[in-house]
Structures are given as structure tokens and as C-alpha cells.
Design goal:
Layout: H1 15-26, H2 30-42, H3 48-78, H4 84-95, H5 105-122, H6 132-140
Length: 141
């Protein structure tokens, strides 16, 4: 008889795990956080693949928000300095011009990184973002 529970590669993640990891990146960690709560309530174990991607998406979203606040604060301070305010205004203007599909240069870079993370999680691979992935690997596995 054929056993449906038998897998040829037990380390390969299921489709549901790939979907949760990809949705975790797309929702900035919210789906992953809800999935973590469900796992804790049902007292199941979390596979390393899913744990890695959930924690990485949460870490990246927190880092993104902190970086946005820090850069905004620095730009507001620089706008009060007489000569530097013109340079700062020019840089912010050129970085925020819509290039394609209503996205700026910064927006396109963010979407490119997000696309990379979602595609690698759908492929069942561990994505690598410098510094972030190293921190997650040290603390999660």
C-alpha cells in the first residue's frame, strides 16, 4: 500500500509553510505573527524554515520602520541648516520622483527586495539579506 504520510525529503517545506512565509513578508510580519500565536496555542513545533522566514520578516519590518523614522528625523534637522537645506531638498526631491508605475527609486528598491524574499520563500530556500540573515541564523536555529 502507498502511505500518504511518507515524504521523500522530510526537510523540504510543505506548500502551506511556503505560503505563510511569503505572506509574512508581504504583510510585514503580521501573518507570521498570527501563525506563531496559532502554533503556540495548538502546542505544535515550528520548523526551522518557517521560523527563519517569520522572524526575518518581523525583523526587517521593524528595521524598516526604525530606519524610516531615523532618516526622517535627520532630514528634518538638516532642513534647518541654511546651505545644507537646499542640498537636502534637492536629494529628497530626486529620490521621490515617480519613475515607473508611480514608484520612486527608493520604492523600487524596496519592492525588489520584497520580490526577492517572496520568491525565495516560495522556492523553499533560505533568503539572504546581509547582516539581517546572519542575526536571524544565530538566534533562531
Amino acid at each position: 500500500m502507498y502511505n500518504n504520510n511518507y515524504r521523500l525529503n522530510p526537510d523540504k517545506p510543505y506548500f502551506m509553510e511556503k505560503l505563510v512565509s511569503a505572506l509574512s513578508y508581504l504583510t510585514m510580519g503580521f501573518v507570521g505573527f498570527i501563525y506563531l500565536i496559532i502554533i503556540v496555542l495548538t502546542k505544535r513545533t515550528l520548523k526551522p524554515f518557517l521560523k527563519y522566514h517569520i522572524f526575518q520578516s518581523i525583523f526587517i519590518s521593524i528595521g524598516y520602520y526604525l530606519l524610516t523614522i531615523f532618516v526622517g528625523l535627520i532630514c528634518n534637522i538638516l532642513l534647518f541648516i541654511p546651505f545644507i537645506n537646499k542640498i537636502t531638498t534637492a536629494i529628497l526631491y530626486y529620490l521621490s520622483i515617480d519613475i515607473i508605475f508611480g514608484c520612486s527609486i527608493i520604492g523600487l528598491c524596496i519592492y525588489a527586495v520584497l520580490f526577492y524574499l517572496v520568491i525565495t520563500s516560495f522556492q523553499g530556500k533560505y533568503s539572504y539579506i546581509p547582516w539581517v540573515s546572519d542575526i536571524i541564523k544565530m538566534n533562531v536555529r
